[in-house]
Design a protein that fits this description.
Blueprint: H1 3-8, H2 11-22, E1 44-48, E2 51-54, E3 59-62, H3 77-88, H4 98-110, E4 115-119, H5 122-137, E5 141-146, E6 158-159, E7 169-170, H6 177-180, E8 183-187, H7 191-201, E9 205-211, E10 224-225, E11 228-229, H8 230-240, E12 244-249, E13 271-274, E14 285-289, H9 291-294, H10 313-325, H11 328-351, E15 357-361, E16 364-368, H12 380-383, H13 388-400, E17 403-404, H14 421-440
Parallel strand pairs: 3-17, 5-8, 5-9, 9-12, 12-13
Antiparallel strand pairs: 1-2, 2-3, 4-14, 6-7, 10-11, 13-14, 15-16
The structure holds pyridoxal-5'-phosphate.
Family: Belongs to the class-III pyridoxal-phosphate-dependent aminotransferase family. HemL subfamily.
InterPro entries: 4pyrrol_synth_GluAld_NH2Trfase (IPR004639), Aminotrans_3 (IPR005814), PyrdxlP-dep_Trfase (IPR015424), PyrdxlP-dep_Trfase_major (IPR015421), PyrdxlP-dep_Trfase_small (IPR015422)
GO molecular function: glutamate-1-semialdehyde 2,1-aminomutase activity; pyridoxal phosphate binding; transaminase activity
Length: about 450
């Protein structure tokens, strides 16, 4: 029997065939489709604690945690209890509730922001925050970094043009040149390039948006130079030029630290975005900042922003309960589990002779299958030198052993407080075979 026939025999393969008839590529978000690792995506029937269960009954240790949100593991009884109780009182009113105020207050308590507006997705948060920054400053241009992902906002789906500090080009068909003409894309951690962008366009730049630590090209932490962290450098440069510094913490916020913020060296960003963990597995996100800035939003100020389902009671209950349960012990557990896996992955890959770099931002880490000559990944240009065939072989071997890794070499690995010794042991015992598979893959 060929591998193809075998695949067609699984319930996931049958579901995927049906899905492709009615959903483009069979998935509602591209990375789920396994395009970059090959093979058929597993369709998930249910999840509990650290495990996903696919349609064929395989139990998989989940190392993506819904790409971040499931900090407490799947189907946490208290989160499910809160969601069930909320749903019994109605699922959306289109009118204010005290639970929304509690969630906003919980975010304000834990982070440098003074006020937040709740929205439904990280994309909506970054889209809205750009509009707010432009509305406040009366300027059009924005600066972003290559390899930072801020959701599928048109202006942020832009690639670097030729040369530093040139205007960006559309990153996908459907985004117009006019849209990206106001976006400047530079390499992450490249201070000279950021300086040049501000030297050229300083008085036209509304804001610079950056992930607090990059988690969407693999994990690339902000670098230090002469004792000054990259985020501090960015904030200072923005302020010299009258631009706003936006820290996108949709991925890092509440996942890496209880304080909701990461790696900003005591810098208070002008504006911040949150999502993922703060929604507890439901569509909830937020953007916030100083009251004086947030008061530019309608109905107080003139910058329009709205949402039918924003702050909906079910998502709000999930988010509030998750933040309440995200104690220092939760972060300590996830930190320990992440440190253990990093050590074990490094040992297995080294033993098999597979060149690699492992980088972390707190408990968020990723494994870069780069060449022997690379000892650190500071930017997207370097991340792109990965030998992705090695990752694909590693990924499929892990999957065969019951471990669900991100189906892309450019993603972080996510853990939860539910990842106990049994789940971690399964990951660790799967590593030698996966490392051998990576070693055997053609570069
Ligand atoms: C996931 C992510 C987003 C987009 O959030 P969605 O909820 O998927 O729209 C934005 N910024 C960062 C840093 C992210 O990781």
């Amino acid at each position: 029997m060929t591998a193809l026939q075998q695949a067609a025999d699984t319930a996931s393969a049958a579901a995927f065939a049906r899905a492709q008839q009615v959903i483009p590529g069979g998935v509602n978000s591209p990375v789920r489709a396994f395009r970059s690792v090959g093979g058929t995506p597993r369709f998930i029937a249910r999840a509990q604690g650290p495990y996903l269960y696919d349609l064929d009954g395989h139990e998989l240790v989940d190392l993506i945690c819904s790409w971040g949100p499931m900090l407490l593991g799947h189907a946490h009884p208290e989160v499910i209890g809160a969601v069930t109780a909320a749903a019994q009182h109605g699922t959306s009113y289109g009118a204010p509730t005290t639970a929304e105020v509690d969630l906003a207050a919980a975010i304000v308590e834990r982070t440098p922001v003074e006020m937040v507006r709740l929205v439904n997705s990280g994309t909506e948060a970054t889209m809205s925050v750009l509009r707010l920054a432009r509305g406040i400053t009366g300027r059009d241009k924005i600066v972003k970094f290559a390899g930072c992902y801020h959701g599928h906002v048109d202006a942020l789906l832009a690639s670097a043009g030729s040369g530093v500090a040139t205007l960006a080009i559309p990153g996908t068909p459907g985004v117009t040149e006019a849209t990206t003409a106001d976006t400047i894309v530079v390499e992450y951690n490249d201070r000279a390039a950021v300086r040049e962008a501000f030297a050229t366009y300083g008085d036209q730049i509304a804001c610079l948006i950056s992930e607090a630590a990059c988690g969407n090209m693999g994990v690339v932490p902000p670098g230090e130079e002469d004792g000054v962290g990259f985020n501090r450098f960015l904030a200072d440069l923005c302020h010299e030029h009258g631009a706003l510094f936006i820290s996108d913490e949709v991925m890092t916020g509440f996942r890496v630290t209880a304080s909701g913020q990461f790696g900003i060296d005591g810098v208070e960003p002008d504006l911040m975005t949150f999502g993922k963990v703060m929604g507890g597995g439901f569509p909830a996100a937020a953007f916030g900042g100083r009251a004086e800035l947030m008061h530019s939003l309608a109905p107080v100020g003139g910058v329009y922003q709205a949402g039918t389902l924003s702050g909906n009671p079910v998502a709000t209950a999930a988010g509030l309960t998750t933040l309440r349960l995200a104690t220092p012990e939760v972060y300590a557990h996830v930190d320990r589990a992440a440190a253990l896996l990093q050590r074990e992955v490094a040992a297995a890959l080294s033993a098999a002779g597979v060149p690699h770099v492992i980088q972390a931002a707190g408990n968020l880490f990723s494994v870069f299958f780069v060449g022997e000559d690379v000892d650190a990944v500071a930017d997207y240009a370097t991340a792109s030198t990965q030998v992705t065939t090695r990752y694909a072989a590693f990924f499929h071997s892990m999957l065969d052993s019951g471990v669900y890794l991100p189906p892309s070499a450019y993603e972080g690995w996510f853990l939860s407080s539910a990842h106990d010794d049994a789940a971690l042991d399964r990951v660790v015992s799967a590593l030698p075979a996966a490392a051998a598979a990576a070693a055997g893959a053609e570069a």
